[in-house]
Specification:
heterodimer, A: 154 residues, alpha+beta, Nuclear Transport Factor 2, Chain: A, Archaeosine Trna-guanine Transglycosylase, Chain: A, domain 4, five-stranded antiparallel β-sheet, 24% helix, globular, B: alpha/beta, Rossmann fold, Alpha-Beta Plaits, 11 helices, 15 strands, 23% strand, binds S-adenosylmethionine
Chain lengths: 154, 312
Amino acid sequence: MRSKSTVNLVVDDKWEKEVWGLLHHQYGVSQLPGYRLLRSGRKRIRIISEEAFKLVTQVPCAGPAGLYFGEYRPHAIRPSMDGAQLIGPYATKGVVIITKEQANNWLQGQSIEIKDDQHGYVIVSDGHRFLGCGSLSKGVLLSFVPKVRRPNKQ
Amino acid sequence: MLDIDKLPKPFLERFSALLGDEFDQFLRNLAQPSENFVRVNTLKVPLKDGQERLAEMNIEAMPLPYYPAGLRIRRGHELIPRTVDFALGYFYIQEGASMVPPISLAPKPNHLVLDLCAAPGSKTTQISQMMGNQGAIIANDRTFQRITSLGHNLQLCGVSNTIVLHEDGRLLPQSLSLKFDRVLVDAPCSASGHLRGKSPQFESPNPKRLQGLQALQKGLIKAGFRLLKSGGRLVYSTCSLHPEENEDVIQHLLNQNPEARLTKNEIIGLASHPGLIEWENTHYNDMMRHCLRVYPQDNDTDGFFIASIRRS
Ligand SMILES: C[S@@+](CC[C@H](N)C(=O)[O-])C[C@H]1O[C@@H](n2cnc3c(N)ncnc32)[C@H](O)[C@@H]1O
């Protein structure tokens, strides 16, 4: 039985190098030891532990493998919430820190104004935790927190 | 809450026979509201930090004596799903007894693990946490809708060592050429151990339904065992306490596979009862006593059955 959940996973060394190159450029992270990257569809990036990576080509009708890490946008990587949490602790740049109050609004999907002149996709932290990824332009930080991951207010 | 006066007679008779002297204690326990538990997801937050965060939010949590990352929530459980930490995947809501099968499985970071009936992924995410996101897990389930929640939970918990398959588990030996160090068969079951907090019209054991489930359970354990490496460990678990779904299934596997051996399954800090040696004129293998019957009154959790089997 071939499932609907089957995704088209591609192992591509050249592409993987390119992604790490962009991650280095944006966040100063050039590799996470023990992890490999997979292409899923045209733009989606999945990150997978080394041992599981070796199985991807051996397992028939593999569904999702590893963690959805982010998207390959033209000339930049937009990390997912969990991708940002994963690389956040190793990032040496491309990180913005917001207040707890700002974080509450941003996590609800709202754009917030911050004093930071960086530009592009940034990893967002509240100083204690890495919260996800946003897009920063002219002091406005857009939120990419998916609806299903927004803290439930009731 | 379960109204024990409304429990059907056949159910009461069966559990009275299973529990003997402890039957009253069992009934008293079932009449209580259900307990609340979370697991600190150490893939995302160190255990100590997780506990401190809960304390800061005025949520009272007690580590389970048999699994420190599992917490019984004494006060404030309703606050947890509203927290930022929960949205970030630092905590996973999972019943206390459901954390036991992965402990029996004892996966190591370099292992190749098969979770045959994985959705919605409570145990897969726990196994991944126990492996520190290393090694590899194949997480399979037959039900498409449940695969979606499995994918969601793996993502939420930051699991990166897992490949999801969507197959009938009984057919996996035909399509997988791998052998596994650990196999978990957390089988579909009648959920007869999951009674607390339930509506009073809890159904009686229905022989026809149990027969159907048993056939499926036998097929799944057989497939799981075929995929186990020699020297590897298979854990079979259900949240049912009916012998038809537990000892009968294990006995069937032992009868068919001389290289299957039940192994001791001691978990420090967990109170449990041994598997049955006899039930309604059936005599089981003496080693069946190595299985764990976790009754609700043992640890103030749901009921569970767990068997650990080695391929010699
Ligand atoms: C008790 S639940 C598993 C719970 C899961 N292990 C967890 O901890 O979250 C049993 C699962 O078996 C799946 N199932 C039923 N028949 C199956 C089959 N033939 N092959 C594989 N999975 C099956 C169901 O879809 C269900 O998700």
